[in-house]
Amino acid sequence: MRQRPRSRGSLVVPALLCALIALGGPPTLSQGAEGSEGPEASAEVARLFEEASTATQHYEEGRRAAVLQKAKAQRMERLLERERREIAVLHNDLGRIARAQYRNGGDIPLTAQMLLADDPEELMHGQRAVWQADLALNNAVDKSRRAEKKLQEGQRKATAAWHSLQERNGQLAALKQSIASKLEEARWKLQGEADSSVAAGQCRGAVRLEQPEFRATRAWVPPVETYELSAGFDSAGERWAHRHTGQDFAVAIGTPVRAAGAGRVVSVSCGGGFGIEVVVEHPGGYYTQYAHLAAVTVDQGQKVGAGQWLGQSGTTGNSTGPHLHFEVRLTPYLGSGVDPVKWFAERGVRL
Fold first, then answer.
1. Which of 100-109, 233-242, 248-257 is predicted with the least confidence, judged by mean pLDDT?
2. How far apart are CA 32 and CA 45, in angstroms?
3. Helix boundaries (H) for 201-275
4. pLDDT digits (tens, 9 = 90+) for 9-42
């Protein structure tokens, strides 16, 4: 008996297992017509899935930009403080010169100082040096003040930009959360429709979904793009009558499931412990199975390429929660499986 997960709040269920069904004959082919009568939920999930991905990407970009902008504002503040300290030092230097002039007769007019001086020429030379020092310090102070004003403006703009990014990121976070809530609702609607069709024995046909262009750089790819591995091949436990026959990928309902490699769809079925499932034959004599789906996007006999969508993940059949049960087989039938992790590794794909 299939059990529902206790919580639907998480988009990805971290540890999910699937039940092993007894050895039997080939799976029953789907009787649904091409282009099912109810593709709305599948299309809605696919659309929201893409929107959620885009919203998350924009939010992360904004968050990183805000971090950089905050660092810039802090750097400008540090430069501003340094400039202010340098101006204070220059002011102290001017004060020392003024005090020195006062001690050396700075209050007496220069003509009187020359008349009273033992060496008027030396006095003039010293006075010029003081004037030059005064001028240099005044220029330095003016320059520092201009620099301080420029840094103040830069720091103000950097801080304003940071606060603007913070506000924008708040809006993006709210949008992201709204899309996530709608996606979760659509996912369970899709799952409900899948459960109803399986229970009624009237499996829907292939749902035509617009999928992004995918150019495989390798002959083999993992069956889902983003995932966590859960129950592995040949695992033992109370949830299975025998040992586990495949590799489970913990993913949320509605996650696009793709062909691990080029081949031909030899079976689409919706009954039994595996729920809605697809089996693909590959050149070289291997078969791959994709089980517990919520919807399929291919028909029996259809040729597929590596990375092409086969359906959307779900939790139909004997499943403890949303995930993809994936097998690599020597025949189309249960009982001929090999370890998918090792099989992928031999083909240069690390799961």
1. 100-109
2. 20
3. none
4. 333 333 333 433 333 333 344 434 344 445 789 9
Residue pair 318/19 in contact (Cβ under 8 Å)? The answer is yes
- Residue/partner pairs of 65-74 with CB below 8 Å, 24 or more apart: 65/165, 66/162, 66/165, 66/166, 66/169, 69/158, 69/161, 69/162, 69/165, 70/162, 72/158, 72/162, 73/155, 73/158, 73/159, 73/161, 73/162
Instruction: Give pTM, 2 decimals.
Output: 0.67
* DSSP notation for 65-112: HHHHHHHHHHHHHHHHHHHHHHHHHHHHHHHHHHHHHHHTTTTS-HHH
**Could you give the CA distance from residue 231 to residue 229 in angstroms, rounded to a whole number?**
7
Angle at 37 between CA 326 and CA 203, to 5 degrees: 40
Instruction: Mark residue 287 as left, alpha or beta (left: phi above 0; alpha: psi -120 to 50; beta: remaining).
Output: beta
**Residue 314 falls in which region: left (phi positive, over 0), alpha (psi -120 to 50) or beta:** beta
